[in-house]
Amino acid sequence: MNLPSLLPTLFLLLAHVAFAQVEYTVREIRPSGAIRTSVADINDRGEVAGYYETGVINQAFVDREGALTLLPPLPGFSQSVASGINATGQVSGTSTDAGGFNQACRWTDGIPLNIGALAPGQFSFGLGINGAGDLIGTGRIASGAQRAFLYSNGASAPLDLGTLGGEVSSAAAVNGIGTVVGRARIANGETRAFSYLNGSPMTDLGTLGGNYSEAHGINARGDIVGQARIASGNTRAFLLSPGGVMTNLGFFAGGSFSVAQAVNVRGEIVGQANSATRAALAFHFVGGRLRDLNKLVSLPGGSLDNALAINSTGRIAVQGRMNGMITGFVLTPIAPAVTLRGSRRFSTNRRQITLRGTATGMILSMQVRSGNREQPVTGTSVWKSRVRLRPGRNVIKVFALGPASDSRAERVIIVRR
Predict the structure, then answer these.
(1) Cα dist. 128→44, 62, 88 in Å?
(2) Whole-angstrom Cα distance, residue 98 to residue 304?
(3) What is the 3-state secondary structure (H, E, C) of 103-172?
(4) How far apart are CA 54 and CA 32, in angstroms?
(5) Could you read off the pLDDT of 273-315 as tens digits, one per residue?
(6) In this predicted model, what pLDDT tens digit does every residue of 308-351 receive, in sequence order?
């Protein structure tokens, strides 16, 4: 699979990516009194937006490393749901009244603002939000048809984004420059993923050979992810980078579908798929392959079913189960650490020596340097490197590269006689 436009320079260096078995710590989000918890988004500060159900109401919240802030509904409304959170902590979502009427809203410092609707008396749902406070969502127009909308910060009302020739559209995400993605009907009634920017007509993003697609996420560079049908009718996660073509991200052995939910600034993609043994599992896509997140954590009694958001440091908001209860989780990459085998200082008359060791945490690649020269490395969790030695004193540094930080460099000093 060729993904040059997606992967940043760091990822392009990973010719031999392999991963340790336990790469993330896991923290469950389960507010007191919740019978079901849903997480929706995570920002770069690690704040998670979502809501929980009590059996009576839905209550929006922001989780800050285990400290919960409840977000009140609009005045006159009784329930709240949070759907997105930006870098400054503004939250997008929806308030619901006792009669079931929904209105999009945005919380700033915990105070809700009524975004309004596309037509008087019609419902609206707030979904994503960008760093400028622009909010996207879905609402009804006067005819009753559902439309995607964009509320620009400071505007008097949301803007109807139109369709691709059909009657219906829905927005899913917006990036920092205001590019909106989602799904819309075309004239023949089929659904297509779309992008929208600055008042221009929606762009049909196509499919993977089938008759359906929808976009779920977009990052700052304009990489778009979502789901699309292939010619057989099965659904596959896709990536569409600026100037590129829609790329099938694949599926797990024995599975039939995959769906990409979000993509971060480094091109890491998360979502949901199935396999021969699981009806639903959360995945992480990096280095050109899907990875089952359940295999990268220690979570006795729990399962990770759908990865919904990922921030720039690789932290992931995941929907799953714990002892049968539907709940939310935050996955945090474990910082890489390197262990060397053998002596750290010795002399030899050989021209080459082999260094060996192990590494733990989420490791993108290993690097071994002798002076300014990079030495070849094979493996990651168990690695080895054949190092060429110059006459005299050689200072060799070994370290592991991670998504958010690198390991401390381990030094070996070898004197070639």
Answers:
(1) 15, 15, 14
(2) 33
(3) EEEEEECCEEEEEECCCCCCCEEEEEECCCCCEEEEEECCCCCEEEEEECCCCCCCEECCCEEEEEEEEE
(4) 9
(5) 999 999 999 999 988 889 999 999 999 999 999 999 999 999 9
(6) 999 999 999 999 999 999 999 999 999 899 999 999 999 999 99
Give the residue among 93, 98, 99 at the shortest CA–CA distance from 114. 93
Residue in the structure block whose two tokens are 């699979």: 1
The predicted pLDDT at position 281 comes to 98
Q: Please determine, for residue 22, whether its predicted confidence score (pLDDT) is greater than 60.
A: yes
What does the pLDDT look like over 168-198, one tens digit per residue? Answer: 999 999 999 999 999 999 999 999 999 999 9
Q: How far apart are CA 47 and CA 306, in angstroms?
A: 18
Q: Are strands 410-416 and 345-348 parallel, antiparallel or unpaired?
A: parallel
Handedness of CA 159, 160, 162, 163 (dihedral sign): positive
List, as own/partner pairs, every contact residues 283-287 make where C-beta atoms lie below 8 angstroms and the sequence separation is at least 24, other chains included: 283/252, 283/258, 283/307, 284/310, 284/316, 285/237, 285/249, 285/260, 286/11, 286/17, 286/364, 287/11, 287/14, 287/17, 287/364
Q: How far apart, in whole angstroms, are the C-alpha atoms of residue 343 and residue 413? A: 9
- For residues 314 and 44, the answer to whether their CB atoms sit within 8 Å is no
State which amino acid sits at residue 57: I
Cα–Cα nearest to 167, from 143, 150, 149, 151: 143
In this prediction the pTM is 0.88
